[in-house]
Structures
1.
Amino acid sequence: MATRIVLLGTAGGPSPKRSRAAPANAVVVDDSLYVVDCGNGVARQIALAGLDIRGLRAMFVTHHHSDHNVDAGTLIQLAWSAGFDRGVDVLGPPPLRTMLSAFRRFADVDIRTRLEDEGRPDIDALVRVHEIAQPGLVYRDARVIVNAALVEHPPMVPSFAFRFDTADRSVVFSGDTAPCKALIDLASGADVLVHEVLHEGGTAEILGRLKNATRLREHLTASHTRLEDVGTVATRAGVRTLVLNHFVPSEGIDDEVWRAGAAQGFAGEIIVGSDLMEL
């Protein structure tokens, strides 16, 4: 069966948005589901996409900003509540194990009640946590091979991009990053590059309302990829299709503006991502 790529949530940043859900992506091979980042509401987005949450096989967290990790524990708990009874691997940078242990304590009343009252399988025996701190091969099974690269998203260190190679496609998820050679090398020759994007001018209205505008502006410019640079990244990587994702700002800019900006540096196919889009 062909590999499916689903953009579950395409917003950037931690605040809830009206038109875009929080960052999350899915790779689907046969009946197996692989999730990259777990922003708020990811389980609901999986349902809206028509995917079976019980097919969850592995989860990958690019870094520990809350818009990327806040529902990692919740996704596991809800999959288990829906009847998930096979093991899941959860991969991401430290302190992933500590964070999921804290969530497990938070959810203990619900989990213990369902174990005793509903006869569900032991959730702790189903979850395998793998902390990763170095680039390279991080996961493989009969359907996918996943490699990671260390990307530049200060002050979150380490932060990762992930590349999935399947029998018929290769797709790279940039995570949050400034332009960097490690990502370009990881994405070399890939069929699809799903890349975050920052419209620097479009953030002016948002920043104008904030007391911490100066600090936030410094973070955005140092840690993300500007619209005028994202096409160049795709060109240098030699990818076939560039998919814009994790939009900052997430609302108020027309799709054609995003597409035209990326096209300044990339002559291949450009797709402006939207929630629940399947590629």
2.
Amino acid sequence: MEREDVGAAILDVDGTLIDSNDQHAHAWMDAGAELGYDIAFDHVRPLIGMGGDRVTPRLIGEDEDSDTGRRIRDLRGEIFREHYLPSLGPTRGARELLERMRAEGLELVVATSASEEDMNPLLEQAGIRDLIEEKTSSDDAEDSKPAPDIVQAALERSPFGAERAVMLGDTPYDVEACRRAGIPCVALRCGGWWSDVDFEGAAAIYDDPADLLAHWDESPFGRLARGERHPT
């Protein structure tokens, strides 16, 4: 590679590269119903993007490590994988964007609140697993988003420091995690639910991966690929 110093694209998955956020919410609702909890869509949907360690107590009033917390976590995962995952598709332009990133010399590192058990099937369903060099999941972070742990874990998997990385996400939790980790976050609207006001602090906002790709040259990723450093 002619450019000695390129950088890393840190990638969220759910809602960013695969259209899955509503289905995750429904899986929580279904699991809650089986265990006797009435979980409303409008209650759980804004929580999607955080890890289960943060979602569980907000929904049932018990920690994820409690007996009931583990039951709803495991049941939610089973329901999602069996009933929702097979029908999911990538967000518009997801594979094409990642192919452009690789062609520009960016290293692709996944940083997701999904479990390791869910992550690879999600990447397969999105049709992008073969493009990813490094992966980090909720299993690699002590605290989930909006804590910066998973972003920092992704940076540790990369030879590039925070000054040579940009993240792509779809929730305010991604933006906050990046702020605390000291890297820019590009936000996508395709995750649904959130307005641009909720993405305050994002380096840029686009509709989806295809929109970002259409504006590649002026985007933070395009500037990173050209060797422009961002302030820390």
